[in-house]
Amino acid sequence: MGNCSCKSASPDRYVSFKEIDCDGNARAVMAMIRKHIDDPARSNAFWEYFKTKAAGGSGPRPDELFLIHSNLNQIRELFETWEDTEALAALDLLEVECC
Q1: Is residue 71 over pLDDT 70?
Q2: Residue 12 counted as domain residue
Q3: Distances from the Cα of 86 to the Cαs of 9, 29, 46, 57, in angstroms?
Q4: DSSP collapsed to 3 states, 32-85
Q5: Domain count within the chain
Q6: 6/18 Cα distance (integer angstroms)
Q7: pTM (2 decimals)?
Q8: Which domain holds residue 28?
Q9: How far is CA 37 from CA 17, 18, 45, 61, 70, in A?
Q10: Burial class (CB in 10 A: 0-12, 13-18, 19+), 50
């Protein structure tokens, strides 16, 4: 039907992810999340539940990439609230490359 001559500037993650350490990158993002939510002044009921879920305390323990993927919007809001640009960049990269 159409001959699209457009090309994506970024690689197709479903083809290229095999060379990416998605688990390692997810661990790094989880550490950035914990830096914030382990501070009682930055936590709330959602983040306490998130910690419980991450530890496997409310059912099977999800892998970190799945847990991050399932809560992308809340995590993004956390990093934006505390103006953590490094964590936002790591989250964006993880989302593009692995989610």
Answers
A1: yes
A2: no
A3: 23, 10, 23, 29
A4: HHHHHHCCHHHCCHHHHHHHHHHCCCCCCCCCHHHHHHHCHHHHHHHHHHCCCH
A5: 1
A6: 24
A7: 0.81
A8: 18-98
A9: 29, 31, 10, 19, 17
A10: buried
